[in-house]
Amino acid sequence: MLDTALIFDAALLPAMLIAMLAGILSFLSPCVLPVVPPYLAYMGGVSVSEMEETRAARKRVFLSAVFFVLGLSTIFLLLGLAFSTMGRMLLQVQDWFVIVAGAMIMVLGAHFIGVFRIGFLDRELRVDAGDKGGSAFGAYLLGLAFAFGWTPCLGPILGAILSLAASEADVARGTVLLAVYAFGLGIPFLLVAAFFPRLKGVMGWMKRHMDRIEKISGLLLWTVGLMMMTGQFAAFSYWLLERFPALALIG
User: What residues form the membrane-spanning segments (predicted)?
Assistant: First the structure.
């Protein structure tokens, strides 16, 4: 018989996988992907053409992108800390909380799929960080501003991960989920900064298939919500342990 403690530890793995996918899908969202090249160029204090043509410009942009990712990660880690603390406070009603959170995530998923549209989720609020381009500290400030300013756009996917963090009712585990989400969102920024000329075609293809990507995001959210409402994360954890016995060494 499998140890209950091991199941509890392994249960975090599917949530981490979902958090990673959610970060990547957030990067691919319609209000992020199209502005990535000019945003990176601005942070590095270069033009988009310079970023494409010269290695020195890409090195400068990459350094700025690192501090940018650190800035947005700071906000997401603080959000993970706050929401997992809230989940801990609601521990006595955690079962009901998870069901309600799952239902809300399913609604957000339906928005992305196109079953219906929620008006305020189609708008974005951008925070003006001023003239901060061209310096590491400025890039960090832009990362903070990005995490705040694009929240309405990232809201459905980010909300799902925050709900997962709150359902963990454990500060460390909830913070880990938001760290993984920040990793999934931040790493593509670094890849584009480092390999922009090679990735232009891929990014163009993604822009042309934005509707399909958005529907995939919605399907992911809807599935996560359903799993939360029906308690299928535990069942998924059993499946992971049976399929990959080495995971039993975790914890």
Answer: 12-40, 61-84, 96-116, 137-166, 178-199, 219-241
